[in-house]
């Protein structure tokens, strides 16, 4: 149960982080945000990132082996990176419709999934 909860929290966390890191790139298309300066964009992104931390910190505390969770620190990090890339890929396809994924991108993702497999292999 702790493993599944950790993964769900990591997915939520990374969803907010992708929006904080890349969502502002679409602000110019939205009238209410189009004239904001860089400092305002940074503050908005920090506000979004606050929610990322509200999920990331509990995910790591619940999932970490030394706190009674099922994962080592390295396993948590590798899972987090793969989750970030999957969410980023989905975000890119849905929000930035001009971006395309090519075969080399798919192969790179497969290698990352293999990295997770080898991370958990005893």
Automatic annotation (TrEMBL):
Pfam families: DMT_6
Top-rank taxon, per record: Bacteria
InterPro entries reported for this sequence: DUF486 (IPR007437)
Assigned keywords, A-Z: Membrane, Transmembrane, Transmembrane helix
Membrane-spanning segments: 36-55, 76-96, 102-120
Name recorded for this polypeptide: DMT family protein
Species in which this protein is naturally found: Labilibaculum filiforme
């Amino acid at each position: 149960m702790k493993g599944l909860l950790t993964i769900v929290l990591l997915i939520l966390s990374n969803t907010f982080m992708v929006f904080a890191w890349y969502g502002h790139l679409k602000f110019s298309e939205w009238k209410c945000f189009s004239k904001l300066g860089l400092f305002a964009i940074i503050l908005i992104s920090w506000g979004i990132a606050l929610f990322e931390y509200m999920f990331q910190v509990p995910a790591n505390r619940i999932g970490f082996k030394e706190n009674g969770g099922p994962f080592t620190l390295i396993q948590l990090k590798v899972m987090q990176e793969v989750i970030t890339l999957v969410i980023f890929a989905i975000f890119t396809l849905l929000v930035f419709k001009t971006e395309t994924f090519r075969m080399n991108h798919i192969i790179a993702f497969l290698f990352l999934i293999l990295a997770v497999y080898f991370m958990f292999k005893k």
